[in-house]
Amino acid sequence: MAGKTQFIKRKQEVSEADKTKVFAKGERREDFADMWSNTGNILLVGLPGSNRVALGRELAARMGIQLCQPADMDALQRDCAEGNRVIVVPTAILEQPENVSFVHGAGKVFYLMADARQLAERLEDRSPSGDADSLWRECALRLEAGQAAFMTALHFIVQASGSVEDMAEDVMEKVSW
Question: Which SUPFAM superfamilies match (predicted)?
């Protein structure tokens, strides 16, 4: 059948077929309880060039809480234990699976997602290397290597292609859930 789209139709028998469940904004889901921990922490993960620090500053200012940029896992654990912080998570910390699990449970985790070209352009703008193409390749490799950890740690994705103010608005809306 040229030109016609065929859809697979399967009937699945389910118990309580008439029952529905709707999740409203702010309703706590039992299957996603870790995000609702009472830490008050907002953790920002992503690669260099995703504007984590700029977004962290903006969020900390809007919320009246402290911005933390821990250098290592010990400092990250201390900052998370304090609570009510915006924390920029160093990318290297997420190279260890046990650290990914810790970050996931330490507060609401936002992955600032951007493509390799955009990351490279931002990094080149900040510190010109004269070899933007090599920087792009390096960002692509780092993105490929880190993607699984970012996706495992996250609760929310923030598109890092917009302005810091737009990203902050997106985070503020999601924090209110």
Answer: P-loop containing nucleoside triphosphate hydrolases
